[in-house]
Amino acid sequence: MRLPTLGLSIALFVAGCASVRTSADYEPGAADKAKFQRDSAVCERQAEADQKNIGLGAMDVTQNTFNRMYDACMRASGYALRPKQ
Question: Whole-model pTM?
Answer without folding.
Answer: 0.73
